[in-house]
Every structure is written in structure tokens, then in C-alpha cells.
Amino acid sequence: MSKIFRFLMTMLLSLMAVAVPAGARGDKPFAGKTIRILFVTDPFAFATQKIVDRLQEATGATIQLEVVPYDAVHQKILLNAQQKESAYEAVSVDIVWEGEFCAANALLPLDGLIAASKFDKSDFLEAAWTEAQCQGKQMGVPLQPHPEILWFRKDIFQAKGIKPPETTDELLKIAAQLNDPKNNFYGIAFNGARGQPLGQQVAHFYAAFGQHLFDDKWHPTLNTPDGIRAAKYFMELKKYAPPDILNMAWDERARQFAQGGAAMCYEWGARSFMAEDPSNSVVSGKVGYVAAPHAPDKPAVTPNGEWSISIPSNVKDQKLAWEFVQWFTDKAQLKELAKAGNSGMPRYSIIRDPELIKMYPVFPAVDGIAKKGQLKDWMRPAIPEWPFLADTFGTVFHGMLSGSITPEQATKKAQDIMDAKMKEDGYYK
Amino acid sequence: MFKPLQSSRAARRRTALILIVPSCLLLAIINLYPFIYALALSFQKYNMTRAAQGARFVWFANYGAAFRDPRFINCVVRTLIIVGGAVAIEFVIGFCLAFVLNTKLRGMDAIRKLSIAPVTVMPIVSALIWFYMLNQRYGIVNWFISFLGVEPQGWLTSTTLATLSIIAADVWQWTPFIMLVILAGLNALPEYVYEAAQIDGLSGWQQFRLVTVPLLMPVMLIIVLLRIMDAFKMFDLVYTMTQGGPAGATETMSYYIYIQAFNFFELGYAAALAILMLILITVISQIFVRWMYREEEATAA
Questions:
Q1: Hey, which residues 161-200 in chain B have their CB within 8 Å of chain A?
Q2: Domain B43-300: assigned CATH number
Q3: What ipTM goes with this model?
């Protein structure tokens, strides 16, 4: 009898041991699960890194966060798509890759899941939501949309009575006026590093001069009068740029500005935390944000970049992945991310939150640009050839900036390379 | 009488076969299979970002495209310049250092040990160190030359200086390796040859020219060959320091193959370029090996 009693007691105790954590799991949505995330080295990832312990605590999940540079994310997502089973539940996707990833079947279209879960998209910036689409299918949920705008030194501009520039001509004039190399202070910082950094900058400057990169039959339109004007604009800017401009990419230009080494800087909105964080910036509180200038005779457009969070098409547990994406892009989580340093936010409720506006003066500027309908994404067409085009721009124009070829030669060379590529890929004969 | 012997010979052959087959198989799997796979891939048009298109057999189209690709031709030229420059400088300095460190002075042993430190540094780490040292505004190199009244230089952003910087970083890392091998060669030279040379009345310079150099020749040629083959594959330095820029001045073949394979995902074309690079390395090393044998025969004669 006592043996049976002891056996029953043991069983009961074991059951309790299992049951207690199960009961405690109730408020932890992903208890016992492992969620593997691939993020790029961008503000949302830095912010996530900071609060990953808190996220694990709140969700009960083991979160494996892998943060790698821009080109590496692109590679890993495409290589991951070749595997039988995805190594990640969620990945960050630059919207310019949508076309390429669509053609490679790398991502899971979310429309079905969105409809089934009655996911509310009304709070998201409209442009941000539609930009995460490919051929009408929703490929991701916006995570960090942000325009490339102009950061400027409000304090210096005010002291000298200068108005922030609206046109490229005005910018050049101010850059010349404030450029002071002897004191390690330069007029303007932009992306000049070879490859993707410069390539993207070229596409944005083409847009500022009103030049689309392709015509409606996908013939490249790079060697046009407006294209050449954009190329010459680079050469003008270079006169007032730091001497290491040819090695300068997104981080370096923001750091240059944050260290008080530039009067103006072309930079993404979400990176404004680099200028506003007093522990890393000497210009905190002295920065103004405006839309990047356009050519005097062309309309104002603001290139909108965006990182979305997507699910690989070969993910093992779609339900788990989607639940995590919903949870991660929820208002409460995004606010946490904003507080941890991400200053590019996809929800109106966040960029209009008074507490956050105090932290990020860039939010009202972005809100204003969005309200004017000025946020565009046509300057970086989301076709599978985009990485090739950006690299072509980034290598050919690097040659131009280093003085090997003229702006006319650079635009012609880029045109010839892209023309051959588009022909080879069967857009036309 | 002979039968047992025959069977034991057959048994020996069988044993030999059993012992040799696994390693041959392993070699075939890890060496031959990737090579054949790359070769097969090089005849196909295959872009991983076009899942629907799949792979198409295109015969030699990728190879033809390579010869018409000015960026690839530029890479070949740049690679030859960097490899030639780096290996030549490494050899000259390494050779001289080996003789200096071969002298029997106090403390030389410690210097010998210290001098091989660069070889043990990971290439990516050495590339980063050089990248920061050569930074135009914050780099220590420009700080030093400022004391000589020289303006800050764009070490990584001017076409000539960037090439020289890549060569300098490679020289820093691999000269000690050459020095070490030649030093080992020097230590292995037999004493009696020098005694004979002294008896024959050869001067110090004559001993060096007629005894030391010819005897060291096999070692020197092998180390140069190894360095050439290795330098052709240079990637880390370029990736970290210049990304192939400016204006493609430091774009090596390995770096361009990487761009084609992992930025554009043109796997067929990248495979064709890799095969072309393999052919180029093989041809150059074969020329070198032939020359080496001729030299050795001449020395023996």
C-alpha cells in the first residue's frame, strides 16, 4: 500500500512540476520556442540588440538575433532560400530587394496571414505599407521606413542667418560658405564609398534632378542631360566634402556630422539618433532636419528607404513566425524600440507621440514630408537588377570622384553597362 | 616454391590498395567534386535570384563574356600588378632579413621569434589594422608624415597609393614567412661545403654567389611559387581596405568573382571566372616550375 501511495505521490509531484511552468506560460506568448532573426546593421537592429533580454523575458522565447552588414543580409536571405528549411523565422528586407526576392521565391507572401489574423494596418504610414509589396503581394510589415533627408547645423545656420537649402544650387552655395577645412569642418557629407553606398546616393541625386533610371520600356536612361547634371553635382559637392569622402558610407557620414565635422549631411532619418544621442554626439540638440534639396527646375521628391520584417518562404512554422512578426511590429514593441534608439518608425501613433518627439526632432519633419505626399520610392526601382545597377553606379562614379573619368564619361559608361545587362536579361533585344 | 611468394605479392598489393583507396576517395570528394561541379556550372547561365528560369546550358558563352568584360580584364591586370609587386618586395626583404637574422648575435633568437608575429595575425585583422592606420584623417601614417611637413595623403583613395597600400599590407604580413623558410634553408646548408670553398680560396662574396645562392635556389623558388599562388587568391585585404576601389585600381580577380557570385548571384559566370583564374594560376606556376627544374639542372651540372 505504501508503495502504491509513494508511486502516486511521485506521479502527482511530477505532474505539478510540469504543470506549474505551463500555468506561468500563460502571459508569455512564445514560451519554450526559439525564434531566429536575421537583421541588418541598422538602427532597428541596434535597438533590438539593446532590449533583446527584455524581449526574451516578455515572450518567454529564446531569441537568436544575428546582425550582419548590408551585403551580407542580402546574401544570407538568398542562400537561405536555397535550403530545404529556413534557418530564420524572420528577416529584415530592404524594399529595393523586393523584386529580386520575389523572383527568387525567397519570401512568404503575407496576405493570407494578414487577412486571417485581421491585422490592422491603418496606423502604418501608407507609403511605408505599400512599399513592402511586390506585384501586389504584401511581402513584409514595415519596420523602419525613413526618408533620406538633409541634416543641418541649426545653431550655425541661425547664428549666420542662413535658411536651410531647398534647392541643390542653394546647398552648394551654403556648403561653400561654411566649408572650413583648416579647422576640420566641411560643408557637406554624403555617401562616397565604392559599391552600394555611393550607388544608392547616385540614384537619389538622379531623382533630385528629376531623372528616372529607366524609361517605360526598361531602357536605362542614365546618359541624359539631367543625368549628367546629377553627376556634375557630385563633383561640385566633393569640393566641400571631407577628404576621406571616397571611403564614406552611411555610418561614417553620420559620425562625421555628429562629431561636429560637417555643416550638412545627406542621411537617413532613422539614423538621427546618432546625432541626437549626447553620449556619442557633440551636436545633440543643435540639428535641424529638412527634405533633401531638389534641382531648381525640378519638383521636390524625397527618397524613402525602408526595412521591412519578412518571413522566409521555407520557414518551418509559419504560424509562429507570423505571430512573432505581429507582436514585434505592435505599437507597444515599436515604442520600446524607439526608446532604445530607433528613430525610423512605421506607425503614425509613434511618430506623433509627444514623448518620442522630444527624443527625436526628426519625427515631425518626416510627418511633414509624408503629409505633402513627397515620399517616393521610384528612384530605386525594385527590380531584380537593382543590386547590379547600384553596384555599377557605385563603381563607375567612384572612378569619376577619384578623378579617373569625367561626369560625361561616367554616365555613358554606366548607361552602356546597364544597357547590356537589360538586354542580356531579356527586357528587350 | 614460387606460389607462396606470388600470393604474398598479391596480398601486399591488396593491402596497399585497401590502404590507399580511402584517402583517394576522400581526395576525390573534397577536391575533384567541387572542381567538376564548378566546371559544369561554368557552362550554364544560372542566376540564383531567378528561381523560375533555373539553369540553362550555354556552352562557352560565360567564357566568351569574360573576355569581353572590361572589368574582368582590368581585374586580371590589377591582380598581376599586385601579385608581382607584393611577391617581389616580400622576396627581396625576406631574403635580406634571413641573412641578418642568421648571424649569431645575442638576442637574435628572440628577434627571430618576434619577427614571425605578422604571419600569425588573421588576414582580416591585419586588413582592419592597415585600414585604420591609413585613414586619411585619423590614421597614424598621415600623422607621422605630418611631422615631415608632408600633406595628408589619400592612401586608400588615390589609384596609385591604394595599390601600394594593399601591397604594403601584404608585404607586412608575408615577408616574415619568406624569411623563415629561407632561414631554415640557410641553417640546413652543410658546413663542409663552406670549408671546401675556403680551402679553394673563395672570398666571402664568391662564397655567397657561388655556394649559398645556388644551394638555396630550390628553397627560394618553392617559397616564391607558394607565395604567387597564394597572393593570386588575395581577398581579405581588398574587401576590407578598398572594396576594389578607387576606379577598380585594387579590384583583384577573387574580389570580382565574389561580387559576381554573392552580390549579383550570377553563379555560372562566377564559376567561369574562377576556372579562368585557376587556368591562369596553373599556367604561371607551370612556367615557374619548368624554369625551376632547368635552374636546378643547371646548378647540378
A1: none
A2: 1.10.3720.10
A3: 0.71
